[in-house]
Amino acid sequence: MTTCQIGILGAMGRMGQAIAATISATEGATIGGAADRPTHDMVGKPYPFADVTLGGSIEDLFRSSDVVIDFTPPGSTAHHAGIAAQTGKPLIVGTTGLKAADHAALDDAAASTVIVQAGNFSLGVNLLTALTQKAASILGDDWDIEILEMHHRNKVDAPSGTAEMLGEAAASGRQVNLEDVACRSREGIIGARPSGEIGFATLRGGSVIGEHEVVFASDSERITLSHRAENRGLFAGGAVRAAVWAQGKPAGRYTMLDVLGLDL
């Protein structure tokens, strides 16, 4: 079996460490390199989770790896995508809060290499996404759709990438554009809820890893689809699975649904 050398961006972060532990426990995968911001006090020292040195150069990380996993905070995705395109190395992107420019950069990079980007890498959430699209396609506009999410106090983007992914699935099921029907905040005297609206509610607090609910509500009944993450290992497991899957695939833009073979 060919071993997949996986590079980790943001290797000293919580997700970076979870990914490192998962790679170490995955047959056919090994840590090819680890990098964090150049100012991190561990740069230049042995990486605690593998027999590599923690680096500060993103370019060096891509050169030493077969595939790179990126769960770093938003702001650097476009730059990382450019390096992936230059080196031809697949890039697995779990960063949330991406802007239009980030997605454009990922689309451009996908012409040269494999890009796997998802708002969430867990099997359960991707099944929830499929179920959300299916339910939205069956239920009419007289069923209101609300998406509720809660995360830890340190999460920097809202709504979460997973909530946005679920909103996209619901909109796709209804064959509408999410941006035309989304309501991401409510305050004051806002009037009655418009028909067809897809609402979002965001909660932040404590150490919650991730909780998501999709509520379908009619005048006479309510359906709730939900998912709760118990530990970050489930996201790391999906990302490593995507990294191994990406090897040898033709250049293109993929999601976790492609990795899992879930056809929406």
UniProtKB/TrEMBL annotation:
GO cellular component entries: cytoplasm
Keyword Oxidoreductase: yes
Binding site residues for NADP(+): R37
Residue numbers annotated as active site: H151, K155
UniProt keyword list: Amino-acid biosynthesis, Cytoplasm, Diaminopimelate biosynthesis, Lysine biosynthesis, NAD, NADP, Oxidoreductase
Record: residues binding NAD(+): G10, A11, M12, G13, R14, M15, D36, G94, T95, T96, A118, G119, N120, F121
Recorded family membership: Belongs to the DapB family.
Protein name: 4-hydroxy-tetrahydrodipicolinate reductase
Organism: Kordiimonas sediminis
